[in-house]
Amino acid sequence: MQMTLKRRETMHRLCGKGLEIFNEKGYYNTSLDDILNELSLSKGAFYHHFKSKEDYFINIVQNLIVQKVYALLVEPLNTCENPLPAILESLENALEPGKKNEMAYGFMLNDFLTEFNKRNEEISNHLKSILSVWEVNLVSVLKRGKVDGHIARHVDCEGAATYIIASFLGMRSLMMDSTNGQLKYQYIQQLKQYFNAIAAQRVAA
Amino acid sequence: MQMTLKRRETMHRLCGKGLEIFNEKGYYNTSLDDILNELSLSKGAFYHHFKSKEDYFINIVQNLIVQKVYALLVEPLNTCENPLPAILESLENALEPGKKNEMAYGFMLNDFLTEFNKRNEEISNHLKSILSVWEVNLVSVLKRGKVDGHIARHVDCEGAATYIIASFLGMRSLMMDSTNGQLKYQYIQQLKQYFNAIAAQRVAA
DNA sequence: AAGAAACCAGACTAGTGGGTCGGTTTAGAG
DNA sequence: CTCTAAACCGACCCACTAGTCTGGTTTCTT
């Protein structure tokens, strides 16, 4: 099955570079040749592995993007401590500029969501389902926090999750330009204020 | 100078319909013919009035979009009361589905911002400057609220403004699909929580 | 060794969409 | 009524890009 290995390797290279360039320039503003030239591959190679540009991108979404969201935004939530600081840390980390040349700034979710929204329903649905996974996990973690007495009982966990996601996506829109260092700091600070408001009151005595 | 009137009228029709369709389908996903057909105008007519598609859109931004942002998000802030409810109301109103067929959902700012971000720096800058106007006004209103004792003294007004804008932009991303009625409600509720956190404590007695 | 299957090169097709250009209509001034 | 200039028309041009096709090369199987 050596051929399968070769296949996997080429597809992997294609997906990796694809995500990189799509993230950089946007999906519709990137031609296949842009990617192919960069990898010294040809149209023939590409269409041997993927049946269309759309199929290709869905592949990228379901492999690479899903993984990233899990690693950055879902798994860090599973600490047994107070969920609020855990959420805060995951968001802060996700907004971090990429180490070295890697994907930066909580990457792309908002960008792709917006780009495909009015253009390609199928891809749009894939992306939304990723968001949905994140949301579900956020909600469940918040609810657990309520049970554990870290979050006030009156809090609407679904609403809170939606709100957190919205603010995060919005920050990505604002951080697109260069002057960003303090934006992230400001965001985290204000989020803390909000978290204070939904945290259980620690009544001393 | 009747000709100038004719000119203005045609340009006005073009801009209005343009904003409508661009908002609906996105700028790059809308061809000039899409708009021209709708108005029964020709390429020739278009290029008689605008020097390019880009020039055309900048025109739309600087006339129509600026106006809408002012009307919906800036002017409502100028009440002499507590700024927090005023902000809340302006956001709620801006997220309202358009009456009749008008532009809906706090319209387009986030969408266009994202669409042009990696594509057209000039337009991108125009849009950012609109955001900036909103931000400046938010900050000044917040600061006034601090002076008037409605907002806690420790609050970072710039940070708060950024945060409010981010959450608003993010909501737009989330509200793109159909199931939205309660999203807005959730958002407003959570925003209230946040506002509670930054409001001056009313110590009774 | 030979044949098949996977892999890849690159010219070509077809469709799209921004922008151009010469000609035609319209409307207001004299 | 004429004459001019602005407004407008629409066929055409050109650059770009997703996707196809043919043919060649490598790699595995038997």
Automatic annotation (TrEMBL), chains A, B:
| Domain HTH tetR-type, first and last residues per copy | 8-68
Q: Which residues bind DNA?
A: 31-50
Kindly state which keywords UniProt assigns to this record, in alphabetical order. Answer: DNA-binding, Transcription, Transcription regulation
Report the domain of life of the source organism: Bacteria
> What Gene Ontology terms describe what this protein does at the molecular function level?
DNA binding
Full protein name: TetR/AcrR family transcriptional regulator
> What organism is recorded for this protein?
Flagellimonas alvinocaridis
